């Protein structure tokens, strides 16, 4: 029997944070659909995948992601599958990753990432290495918090002058967490001179593609962001 042909490898980035800072009364974590929908899309397209977190090990889940409309059949199936959930119990630590083994990096969201994605030099190094090696950098929802502080080898911010999107400040307000988040992610992106844009309708699916940078605005954008990432990867492989 022939071995399956793998098109390449994709690195998912998830958070180790379980609460808004030191406020344990407000739990947070990975917004599960933002991993599952892309993971299944990449899997169906023949890509090998690794789930990585800054520290490795346990990945907490955002409780609201298990109730929100994005908790569909695929998410429920994953949540009830011990083998799938083991990926979130034993995530690979960022320090163990060789970026040259990957064709793309995909930053998931959930408010947790606002705390452990920025100011992380290991994540910055991995992202910069993948991008400068011709790979694809993608993020959905708050995942763009992992992009806005990345500097390329020439000292220029990765997102400077690039069209991107991510969870908007208006959506933070509508979600009722504007007073809990540690900063305004949209504002940070704009301060890095990113060309930020968003859907006219909050929480509607919306994506941006600028070269090898792919971003999605919110949880409802996860699948579309994954498919856009696959399109960019296909173009890269055809070159």
Describe this structure in words.
The chain has 239 residues and is of the alpha/beta class. It has one domain: Class I glutamine amidotransferase (GATase) domain (Rossmann fold), CATH 3.40.50.880. 31% of the residues lie in helices and 18% in strands. It contains eight helices and eleven strands. It has helices at 33-44, 73-79, 82-89, 113-116, 121-132, 169-174, 185-191, 222-238; strands spanning 8-13, 19-20, 23-27, 47-53, 92-93, 104-107, 136-140, 163-164, 195-196, 207-210, 213-216. It has a seven-stranded mixed beta sheet. It has a two-stranded antiparallel ribbon with strand order 2-3. A hairpin with a 2-residue loop joins strand 10 and strand 11 (213-216). The model has no long low-confidence stretch (mean pLDDT 95).
Properties at a glance:
alpha/beta; 8 helices; Rossmann fold; two-stranded antiparallel ribbon; seven-stranded mixed β-sheet; 239 residues
Order of helices and strands: EEEHEHHEEHHEEHHEEEH
What is the CATH domain class?
Alpha Beta
Tell me the total number of β-strands: 11
Strand order of the largest sheet: 5-4-1-6-7-11-10
Major β-sheet profile: 7 strands, mixed
Q: Indicate the proportion of strand residues.
A: 15-25%
Indicate the mean pLDDT: 95
Architecture per CATH nomenclature, i.e. the level-2 architecture? 3-Layer(aba) Sandwich
H/I helix tally: 8
Terminus-to-terminus distance: 31 Å
* Structural domain tally: 1
CATH fold-level topology: Rossmann fold
- CA gyration radius, whole angstroms: 16 Å
Global outline: globular
